Request: fold
Amino acid sequence: MELWDAYDAYGNQTGETLVRGEEIPLGRYHMVCEVLVRHTDGSILCMKRASTKPNYPGFFEATAGGSALQGEDRLACIRRELLEETGLSCESFRYVGTDVDEWESSIYHTYVCQVDCEKTAVTLQEGETEDYRWLTPEEFGALLRSPRMIARQTKRFLPYYREQGWFAYRLLALDMDGTLLNSHGEVSERNRKAIRAALDAGIHVTLSTGRSLTGAHWCAEELDLTCPLIIYNGGMLADRAGNVLYSKELLPADALLAMEEGVKRGVTLCIWCGGKLYGHPLNERTADYVRFAGVEPLPVESLEALARQGVTKVLWYGTKEEIPAFWKEMEKAPFENVHATPSQPMFLEFFHGEVSKAAALERLGALLNVQREEMIAMGDGANDLELLAYAGLGVAMGNASPLVKKQADAVTVTNDRDGVAEVIEKYLL
Reply:
């Protein structure tokens, strides 16, 4: 049985004991220490995680480390872990930073050490690692931009990587509602200033939203964003001037089926076709949807005719109680190629099956020559899951659902506490 000391979020011991494998109480954390190993010749030790590991099997990591045993301080922990995982010893360690991971109930302390040893002296720990390499700084910088590195670990060592000139994030993709915008639908002054600073530093900043160009344009204009925007949940890439760089519409039969199934269930339809918004029926819900759309909805004369014109998105406006059940039901609907996802608690949206925020971000990265590992994406809803998984660093908002938080690489504070500014200040500036 492995025992750990319990800590509060500020790193103070609470006097309680935690048992590895047992659930950690809310508000309690265990300490984890990691160390990046550099040789006196400047090379960096990288180890390949064992293929039998439950988390990140076969991935490369640039550190040795693990949980502190009960009674261990930071340095005792890091010396022990270094010896166990590499067979190397060191007495001098440079502190890099501390990262509190609320979802993992862990407080990470990161260090760098320098060793002067035979490079063949590394001893792999059975069950932990299965290979190792000493990389030059140039080789290591390239590895940091590959999908075989662990994003969560990269973010913890980011201050050191940036100092060495090895790695920096170059693109920030922001969901709007529940992420960039506060609960009043506004961009806070702190978020605005942070985005301005990121732009001045040469960072590409884009919006990644389920909104239309009209619904997103005011925000892009207010923030003076010049990067193409991801709109309609990835169904379109367009610039502020309205030039469409990419667009994917629903197949006519799928669009009609999505609309007919919505009518059967008594939801209100908000349909985007040719850049125009149509409501069926026109009611209080379509009137409320205008705050997202930015345009007044038009009446629908014929669902069949509208489907043939080319529909970008069909949105069901229901209640937050019925939308989850409808989403599950639509998994069995006989669509040919459809992607359905909630975007708000009361919205269920339908797109072409090839459409997602992640696919659009990939296209944008190719356009800007930015690799996915150099991207940060932020979101709060189910329609952001693929986006956060694709980006090198996927950040969930503090107000995000538990599922989104679990799958993200990091969790920031809520949209009402300037979570976007927190991320910009920590990872980009």
